[in-house]
Write a structure and sequence with these properties.
single chain, mainly alpha, three-stranded antiparallel sheet
Length: 678
């Protein structure tokens, strides 16, 4: 009887048997009973199983190939690349001729101890008591804290992702086993670099054309990999901090290169919201004033340098950017061209404090990475310590309020009684006079009767105005109109989120009809003309288009209140006027806070009084409406309501100047002085 391949007979019955090879065992036979004593049946079944075995073996071989171990040339490539990268960092620092250059071997010696310990098996959790005892026995007890810090850096930096990139760069397999093994080889390479760099100032190394190659000369030529090696990734081992660096890891990036990452991180964490142009400008100014040094080269003196630099700039200064304008040139050169700052032109201490607070936030963020101090528990970049103590002079009102008389003049202007078209709305147009409805018409009314802030009101959306309730009202809340880049913004703090009943005078003058008209046009913003400009939006745009002309109109008829510093009232001063109406006996302090959007005070107000939750909107809104109308005087009774009329969007809220042009004293007199016709 012919032999049946891959079978044997046991007790007269056939058994199929193949040998399986494992990585950790030479081989192992796998028997499988064919369940027959008939050679014909056994041959058929054995043939089927043989075919199946070949297919399974091919699949297993493929899996094993994907998960194979590192080869000798691959290990050597990993070692050499990491060794060269680490040596490059050391040699660069040593030959930089900086204050720390001579200390490179000393620093490398401490790092070498950390690498030697951390490369041992089971040292992924750090130094053991035995490790510390050995260091003390060798006379390195004083260096133990530094060595432990270096060991922590090694573990933090050599993440799986970093090691995987190094494996990918040489075309080696990437899986859990090779990553673990490769990490050890990278640590070995760094340890070797720390030992070799002790000779960096020896004569033979100093005389070598390529000191890095000289330090690696004993390794001979590298082994050849199956495919070319192209290592373009950054150094995966820690960059040695200069001896006088105050941070654990020396980050060589200039400060300006980290600005985008800082903005993204702080916005993602919810620490900063909305438009971050101001924060960007402050960080760019810091980089400019301090010389845009590597992140690792900064120290505590730079916080003071930034503050002093800001104080040397006038209040009105055009910074430009780091690529154009003033900040594209050295700070010292720009400063040398500026005249001494006069007292009246000095930057407001509050502005200095704002910039310092912004940089304090940046420093706290970087304190977990690039600005992590060498000494735990210390603060290197302390911007908060430089804040200026603001002395409040009780005799100076920083924002003089409007008086009722001033706003009566505004509400009696042609803007509300009938004026010309765009750019002539503060002037009487005679028979052709007309009233137009837009932000210029309604915003001053809303500010006076509801005391809301500039941006709260200018940034209202149509959806924020509720007209189908028994008490029409608007909801001040975060919305997309006030935000940028698809983010919602608007609430300065939680108390600012509030619902205010629309004053009867606004309803009488057609505000609800205006809302319907804007809705019919398909706009989201209630005052869309204020958001056509991407740079200046909302209240800032309204100030340029309309408000400054309104102030001139009022000032021509009634002197404006001024503080000793020469500052007059602004838009926010209307809110101060509104709050003053409640400064009388019997006012409910909680209701006043809710209307103004102020945080409540006292345990009762903060924790117990919750009328909106217990009584509901149908009760609270009429109460707030009656409260406002009881204390706020009605000063617009002279205004006649008009059907809603809208200018083209680009012409809305462009009121123009209302100042009367004075007749020249020499009008009608010829330049020759005789006054006659010629």
């Amino acid at each position: 009887m012919a032999h049946i391949p891959h079978t044997r007979r046991t007790n007269g019955r056939y058994v199929f048997q193949r040998r399986v090879h494992y990585r950790n065992l030479i081989s192992k036979p796998v028997p499988l009973a064919l369940g027959t004593a008939d050679p014909k049946v056994a041959r058929t079944r054995a043939a089927i199983l043989s075919a199946r075995f070949v297919r399974v073996k091919s699949s297993v071989d493929a899996m094993l190939e994907d998960g194979r171990r590192l080869t000798g040339p691959e290990i050597e490539a990993l070692f050499r690349n990491a060794l060269e990268a680490e040596l490059t960092s050391y040699v660069h620092s040593a030959y930089e001729n900086a204050s720390w250059s001579s200390s490179v071997p000393e620093v490398a010696a401490q790092e070498a101890e950390a690498y030697r310990i951390i490369r041992r098996p089971d040292r992924h959790l750090g130094l053991t008591d035995q490790d510390r005892a050995e260091l003390v026995a060798r006379g390195l007890g004083a260096d133990v804290p530094a060595i432990e810090d270096y060991a922590q850096q090694i573990r933090d930096l050599l993440t799986d992702a970093v090691v995987a990139k190094r494996l990918d760069a040489i075309g080696a397999p990437i899986h859990a086993d090779t990553i673990a093994v490769a990490r050890t080889h990278l640590i070995r390479a760094a340890a070797s670099a720390c030992t070799r760099v002790q000779r960096v100032f020896d004569d033979d190394i100093m005389d070598a054309a390529d000191p890095i190659a000289a330090l690696m000369a004993d390794l001979g030529p590298p082994a050849t990999l199956p495919k070319p090696v192209a290592i373009t990734e950054p150094v995966v081992v820690p960059i040695t901090p200069p001896i006088d660096s105050q941070f654990q890891v020396y980050d060589p990036r200039p400060f300006s290169a980290a600005i985008d990452d800082i903005l993204t991180d702080l916005k993602t964490d919810g620490i900063w919201k909305g438009d971050l142009r101001q924060q960007r400008r402050i960080m760019e100014t810091f980089a400019w004033i301090t010389g845009d040094k590597p992140l690792g080269a900064y120290n505590h003196l730079d916080a003071a340098t930034f503050k002093k630099g800001m104080q040397k700039l006038p209040a009105r200064f055009y910074y430009g950017s780091l690529t154009e304008g003033a900040m594209s040139r050295p700070f010292a050169d720009v400063l040398a061209e500026l005249p001494p700052v006069a007292p009246a032109d000095r930057r407001n201490p509050k502005t200095i404090n704002r910039d310092l607070s912004t940089m304090a936030t940046v420093a706290r963020h970087l304190a977990t990475t690039s600005w992590k101090p060498r000494l735990p528990g210390t603060t290197v970049m302390d911007f908060s310590a430089g804040r200026i103590a603001i002395k409040v002079d009780p005799n100076i009102d920083t924002r003089p309020p409007w008086t009722t008389a001033h706003l009566e003049h505004l509400f009696a202007s042609p803007l509300y009684t009938g004026g010309g078209g765009a750019l002539k709305r503060l002037r009487d147009a005679g028979r052709d006079r007309q009233v137009w409805h837009d932000a210029a018409y309604f915003l001053p009314l809303l500010w006076f009767y509801h005391h809301s802030c500039r941006e709260e009101t200018a940034g209202l959306e149509v959806a924020d105005v509720v007209t189908d309730h028994a008490v029409p009202h608007f909801h001040i809340r975060d919305n997309l109109t006030r935000g940028r880049d698809g983010e919602m913004a608007g609430e300065k703090r939680g108390a600012r989120n509030r619902k205010l009943p629309i004053h009867a005078e606004l309803i009488r003058l057609g505000f609800l009809d205006y809302v319907d008209a804007i809705r019919a046009e398909g706009h989201v913003a209630l005052f869309p003309e204020l958001y056509v400009n991407e740079e200046k939006r909302g209240g800032a745009h309204f100030y340029e288009r309309a408000w400054q002309h309104m102030v001139d109109y009022i000032a021509e008829r009634l002197p404006l209140p001024m503080n000793p510093a020469g500052k007059g009232p602004d838009i926010h001063s209307i809110r101060a006027l509104g709050s003053s109406f409640y400064e009388v006996d019997g006012v409910n302090a909680l209701m006043r806070a809710d209307v103004m959007g102020h945080a409540r005070e006292g345990t009762n107000g903060k924790h117990y009084s919750k009328r909106m939750a217990t009584e509901g909107l149908d009760v609270v809104l009429p109460e707030r409406r009656d409260f406002i109308e009881r204390y706020v005087p009605t000063i617009t009774g002279n205004i006649e309501p008009h059907p809603i009329r809208l200018l083209p969007l680009e012409k809305r809220s462009r009121v123009g100047s209302g100042i009367t042009r004075k007749r020249r004293s020499d009008a009608g007199v010829s330049r020759t002085g005789d006054g006659g016709d010629r």
